[in-house]
Model the fold of this input.
Amino acid sequence: SAIHLATYRTLNKFVSTYESSSTAHFKHGRTETIRSLTQEMKDFVLTFEDSSATTAQKLDAFRKAATRHGAVAKASKLGQGQDRHLQGLFWSARQCSENIHEYEIPSMFDETYFN
Done:
């Protein structure tokens, strides 16, 4: 949350943040991505930056953001993340487009996330 708050104060915008999570307890497990910029995290930053917000409101927003981050991190560690899966699908589609005549990469991979 401190990273998101500092980034928001510096750039006056939210940016996607990469955090690594180990999946080493799975056979051949490596890492998965934790996407920590959740709606709860955005709410925390905006509440913390709101000069009219009370200390109790700020603390409540922080607790909600921390709880959500913990849930996302746990899911990622348990292999329930989606980043590596989608990345693998993207690279497979890209390889197909280079080797199979008239194969088109699915439009879902047109997003800037994949480029």
